[in-house]
Amino acid sequence: MIMLNVKEMACGGCVKSVTEAVKSIDASAEVDASLETGEVKVTSGANPESIRSAIEEAGFPAALA
Ligand SMILES: [Cu+2]
Prior knowledge:
This protein is of the alpha+beta class. The protein has a single domain (about 1-65), classed as Alpha-Beta Plaits, CATH 3.30.70.100. It is built from 2 helices and 4 strands, in the order βαββαβ. The chain has a 4-stranded antiparallel sheet, covered by helices on one side. A hairpin with a 5-residue loop joins β2 (about 30-35) and β3. α1 crosses α2. About 25% of the residues are buried. It binds copper (II) ion. Copper (II) ion binds near residues 10 and 11.
């Protein structure tokens, strides 16, 4: 499990963008993103930093928790 804190998710479209960013790294990843807390849980064997940077490239400041 990879935990991230993601900022600036404001609506369901943002959650979808973050989810798609993660899936661009690992298509089989499971993504659970909370709009309320900004917590994003990713079940994936991919490199956590790769996932973090993909979310940032999608426009959302992200930090590994
Ligand atoms: Cu949005």
